[in-house]
Amino acid sequence: MTTHGLKGTSTYNTWQGLKNRCNCPKEQDAPHYKDKGITYDAKWETFEGFIEDMGLCPPGLQLDRIDTEGNYTKANCRWVSSTVNMRNRAAVKLTPDNVREIRKLLQEAPTANSQRATCTKIGDMFGVSFGAIRDIALNRRWSEVK
Question: What confidence tier does 1 reach under pLDDT thresholds 50, 70, 90?
Fold first, then answer.
C-alpha cells in the first residue's frame, strides 16, 4: 500500500521509469540498459530510498546519469534540464568547440542546394545524425554557442 502520496508525480514516474528500463525493458530499450548491465542502487528498489538520495524532482527537470555507461546511483545521477540531458546521451557527445567547428563548416557549404549532403557529411564526421546538424544550423540546439 502506498503511503507517501506521491504516486503519479514526475518524481515517482521517473523512479518507475528507471526501474522499468533496468528490469523489464521494451525490446528497443534493452541494448541501452539491461543488455549493457545498467542497474540501479539496491536502496532505490523502494521509492522512499530513491527520494532519500535524490529528493523531489525540481519542476521542469529530468533525471540524468552523469556517466551514461554507469548505473543509476546517487553519485552518478542529477536533476538537469532536457537540454543538458539530451547533450549527455551516449550517442551524442558534442562539445561547444565541436559546435563552433560544425557552424564554420556549414558556412563554407558551396550552395544552399547542397545543404542536405553537407549536413549528412558533417554528421558523419562528428558521429551524429543529419537532424542534429540541421538543428545546429537552425539554432534549435546549442543556440547559445557562438
Answer: very low
Q: Which three cell numbers stand for residue 78?
A: 542529477
pLDDT of residue 59 exceeding 60, the answer is yes
Model confidence at 134, pLDDT cuts 50, 70, 90, reads confident
pLDDT (mean) for 79-108: 80
Give the end-to-end CA distance of the chain in Å, rounded to a whole number.
53
Residue 42 CB-half CA count within 13 A: 0
The SS3 call for residue 78 is: strand
Asked whether the whole model's pTM tops 0.70, one would answer no
> Hey, where are the domains in the chain?
10-87, 96-137
Outline where 64-139 has alpha helix (H).
82-87, 96-107, 115-126, 130-137
8 in the Ramachandran plot: left (φ > 0), alpha (ψ -120 to 50) or beta? left
Show the 3-state SS of 20-77. HHHHCCCCCCHHHCHHHCCCECHHHHCHHHHHHHHCCCCCCCEEEECCCCCCECHHHE
